[in-house]
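so i finally got all the pieces together for this one. its two components total, 441 residues if u count the protein bits. some of the lines might not be protein, just check the labels. i wanna see the whole assembly predicted at once instead of chain by chain like last time, that was a mess tbh
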Amino acid sequence: MIRYIWPTICLFLAAGIQGNLPISISIFGAMPDLVLVVLIAYALAQDPEFGVTLGFIAGLIHGCSVGLTVGSFIATRAITGFIAGLVSTRLFSENAIVPTFSVLWLTAVCGGLFQLFNPRLELSKVLGVLAGQCILNAIFTFLLYLAIRQFDNRRKNKLVNARL
Amino acid sequence: MFNFLRNKTITTLAVLVCLGMLIGFAQNRGLETGKSFFVQDAISSILAPIESAAHAVFGVGGWLKRVLRPTSSILKENARLREQVRSLQMDNARLREAAFENLSLRKALGLKQISPLKMTAAEVISHSESSWFDTATLNCGSRKGVEKGSAVFNHLGLIGQIVDIDPFTAQMVSLTDLDSAVGGTVQRSRCSGIVRGQGSEYLVLTYLPKDADVIANDIVVSSGMGKVIPKGLPIGRVVRVIRDTGGVTTSALIAPSVRFEQVETVFIAGIGQSAAQ
């Protein structure tokens, strides 16, 4: 249970920030989905069961913040969390391209599933929004990954210096 | 054949997806019946302070942009606004005269008097939480008397409707959202139809008669049908008229009078106010 606490706090923070992102960063009418980025980032580093449960929590939080179609949000995020959990990136953890590319295609999968559960827009519009969201999510993941790695390196250096 | 069901993860996935569907069903029932859904209320209560804090942090950027503007642009804007105020003062005097005449005529004809709109001011603390919906969160809820279905508007016109409320916040859906629909009237010719969102920046006025008197630049206002949305709130301006040669109706593409993504402060009208202000 404890391992879900920090990711859940991060999901709440992401949902809070999500609605206040400046509109100028949108591409093809799409905004980055920070809740999905956090979900995939955590699920990639853990097992599928963790991904499913965190996906459920992410869907619930995101659905409630939007206020509509909570069920579609939960189902699609749970499935996306499961798929992300299956993808192991532990071997490539030093390479920022792998999580970035994983978020790119998993965003497409999640968006596609969401349209299956909840078809609303025309296909051309869906493809445009999906493309925009995939690009933005990938950029955010790349930046987030670099920031985390920088933070991690500093922490390791401090530990080494302390030992010396 | 069903060996994969023994896998704990697959079972968890199936159970959680089913649970998600049940929660979605319960939430939809809540939206239809007007009752609150406690799970959503609880999560919204946790999210509201985070959204307010994020709104305040991101608002600093806009404030800095305003403060650090060059003086020349402020002076230019000031001159333009003074000119606009003069023009609006003249319009106001003319409209007051018309309103007085309208009041006297309504009295003479024995019609019901127009009552002022009862409204609550609110701030948008979060918007466009998802790329698939045009929704926003407002910082006042049922404790301030906000009701589901209430109209949300500002000085420029109608913006949307309240779809869900909890004690401290309310969720509104914009007119531009695909699921949104309100009654609209062409102000000049009084032709009425339904204004629907398209999930894009334009709205569409549908179900107009085939020979409807509607032209580009006509103003469309809320019709007040159903007595949920107050009558006479500006919705937008006609951009293009689409006459269906084979069909029996005409529709019109409308540019909304309010850009949803730029809205910061709004008013929420009480339900059941049928008269225009």
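Residues 19 and 66 of chain A are 9 Å apart (CA to CA).
Chain A touches chain B through 51 residues (CB under 8 Å).
anyway lmk what u think
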